[in-house]
Amino acid sequence: MRVPMEAERSNLLYLWPRRTLFVGCVAQPIQFSQAAASLVFGVHAPLTVRVPGHDARQWHSLLLAPGAKVAIEPSGQLVAACYLDALGQDYRLLSARMRPLIPGVHGAVPGEHGFRQWLADLHQSPLRPADVYSELEAHINPAADDYPMADPRIEKVVERIRQEVSRNVSVETLAGEVNLSVSRLVELFRGQVGVPIRRYRQWHRLFVTFTGVNKGETLTEAAIAAGFTDSAHFSHTFRMTLGMKPSDILAMLSGRLFVDIHQSHTPARSGYGPAGIPCAF
What we know:
By secondary structure, this protein is an alpha+beta fold. It has helices at residues 89-95, 112-124, 129-140, 152-163, 171-177, 182-193, 197-214, 219-225, 231-242, 246-250; strands spanning 12-15, 20-25, 30-32, 38-42, 47-50, 57-59, 61-64, 70-73, 78-83, 99-102, 105-107, 257-259.
């Protein structure tokens, strides 16, 4: 079902616990070094991609591993960024199907043309969050293949962080709850999620802040409730994590922020049952 609104050239943001989707026009270069894997598209034209130590390249679609340091020059065109699940199941599924370019960066998502056309149509005429999630899932995994397994101990830690995101639950406490040593938890968490526990926690606090804004809280109120010390702390984390200023997204949403807290699990067709996996936005 389409959301009734005028077709305007403002940004569009969907938030689900498992994934996040941004579609909008971005003028300034984006410095990616995020705490979750992401699919990035130049919707109408290729993006110029710069990676330290490599020549600049142009691609319509990219898969970025967590922590990959990539500069993207959108030049004001329509860009889409889908931030994938925290436990790396989307990333492992997609990376096996895409062309490896350099470590941590893959190009040419399968079904790229149709994916980009869907994103362009969505930007002009948004859908309800549940409908978007279903269609996004169909583009990410059109064959409905099983998703790679996640370590249940890391799933539990991620869920614990999500449930008490405003608290800095110690690594020692988290390790004890899953019967691991601190060093082993740190190793497994980074191997599964791609970034350290502290960085993931900050990343998920961004997601929680946006859900608060969607409920009518001010940005400062939502940021503090999510565990940030103040709005400046939120803005710094946002810029360092997403490579953009909050104003690049928030100022142009114009009512096009959609949150659905119910789409939190690995799709049932994966055969693994509910995973309780939060998306890290």
